[in-house]
Amino acid sequence: MPYVTESGKKLVTVIPGDGIGPEVVNAARTIIEATGVAIEWEERHAGASVFRQGLESGVPAETIQSINKTRVALKGPLETPVGFGEKSANVTLRKLFETYANVRPARELPGITTPYTGRGIDLVVVRENVEDLYAGIEHMQTPGVAQCLKLISHKGSEKIARFAFEFARSEGRKRVHCATKSNIMKMTEGALKRAFESVAKEYPDIEAQHIIIDNCAHQLVKRPEQFDVIVTTNMNGDIISDLTSALIGGLGFAPSANIGTEVAIFEAVHGSAPKYAGKNVINPTALLGSAIMMLRHLGEFEAAAAIEHALLVTLEEGKVRTGDVAGYDKGTSTTDYTKAIIANLGKKSKKWHVREYKPIKLPQVTKELDFVKPSVRRVLGVDVFVESPLLPEALGKSLEELCASTPLRLKMISNRGTKVYPSTGAITDCVDHHRCRFFLREEQGELKDDQILDLLTRVSTKHRWMHIEKLQSFENQSGFTKAQGED
Ligand code: NAP
Q: Ligand 1 mean position to 50 CA, how many Å?
């Protein structure tokens, strides 16, 4: 629910941002105000200026408090300055408010000529926004081998899949593709595919189709008009949504919304483009598109449609074109482009339509922790990750000696995912990072923690271990994958 001020206006936190941020935010704000819609702004800051004050998160408490109150923010791009803070203030904001759905529409626009002009591209990428490799959990496991954890939850997958179908319904869209790499990452990427296929049954009015992400990228370049909504995991979505922006004219035209159960943050896909900052030349359309999405989120459908019509008319007339379209030596200034859109408020294009939008029904999420309780679970073995200069044959023999009198046997060693011990005869370029897989000798047994600790103590007498993973089964289904070449 939006926060309504005493004067009856909906309160929105506005963050001007860095570089070209203040110019594009100001353009969108001026156009919104020109519609007369009852919006009031609470200005707060984040990004470079905050990092410079020494706050490492880049997001001060008063900004968090404001968003907590208003539940809606319109945000300019934020720089991630090298040397001040390590984490991106953008990602911090998205994660702090659990804005799990990143919505990135790409629609052909009048007067913006691309190789795809006339093909009617009108699609939306729904990107999972808080999980996956972007959880940012990275470790140097050995001085030469880095690891990034790809965490995908059942709860997160179900939520984003459901969101995609609800989003399709709210915009009257008929088809949702789910794009994953589940053929390779069966457990992580596969979690979204499984959630999608299960949730799809509740939406018989919408065509649901799974597509492998690499083919999706190929199809997006070849025949983008076949897509309506594409739901995908965080990193895949990051990449393909930049691709879809390019299909319709580039970052100057690519809006986005970060939607959560409680908070929504609207921003352009682009960054702070510092070389154009303060020059009054930048294209504000992307942030304006985000502002239109914000108005719809606030239930202000009329004002949103008025701005979208005015934008389409302005682009169709082609009298004003910003530097990214016309060339920076002859482009219209940001402020004149803004004025032209305001002058067109109230007009409608005969050719370019605006969709009928309905309020979105956000998936219901309980505040409770998602604790998944299988009826049967078992620990069958353990993967011990060892940093060692030994070749697999020597390491394997040594580990076999160390576990000889224990309930555990060494099944195999893999190096960067490929089995290297016992040798398969494969040609593998080994590094000093070995995954050593131990199973209970007694197949029906249950591996206890003290047996794992005993194994680690023995391994550490001769080798340096740095990480372990339990090999578990849930509901009698294996909870781990095999190495390449492992039988
Ligand atoms: P960028 O700021 O998006 O700019 C890259 C290029 O895209 C620009 O040089 C320009 O292309 C074009 N462009 C971007 N916005 C445009 C607009 N409104 N109108 C017309 N053209 C536009 O990407 P970057 O240079 O990689 O990143 C700069 C900073 O922004 C970094 O600190 C980065 O961390 C941050 N960033 C923030 C966000 C965010 O806040 N969500 C997102 C991305 C990046 P031409 O040079 O071809 O004219």
A: 20
**Alpha-carbon dihedral sign for residues 402, 462, 421, 182:** positive
Mutational pocket test of ligand 1: of 94, 270, 333, the residue with most ligand atoms within 8 Å of the beta carbon: 270
pLDDT in tens, 198-220: 999 999 999 999 999 999 999 99
- CATH code for residues 1-114+248-356: 3.40.718.10
User: Mean pLDDT, the chain, as a whole number?
Assistant: 95
Q: Domain coordinates of the chain in residue numbers?
A: 1-114+248-356, 377-478
Architecture of domain 377-478: 2-Layer Sandwich (3.30)
Is the CB of 189 inside a 6 Å radius of any atom of ligand 1? no
Give the atom of ligand 1 at the shortest distance from the alpha carbon of 76: 40
Task: Provide the whole-model pTM.
Answer: 0.94
Concatenated DSSP letters of 376-398: -EEEEEEEEEEE-SS-HHHHHHH
* Structure tokens that stand for 320 in this block: 């004003």
Atom 45 in ligand 1: which residue has the minimum CA distance?
Answer: 324
**CB 218: neighbour CB atoms within 10 A?**
12
| Over residues 125-144, mean pLDDT | 94
Per-residue pLDDT reduced to its tens digit, 400-454: 999 999 999 999 999 999 999 999 887 889 999 999 999 999 988 999 999 999 9
Q: Per residue in 54-90, pLDDT tens?
A: 888 899 999 999 999 999 999 999 998 776 446 788 8
Burial status of residue 205 (CB atoms within 10 A of its CB: 0-12, 13-18, 19 or more): exposed
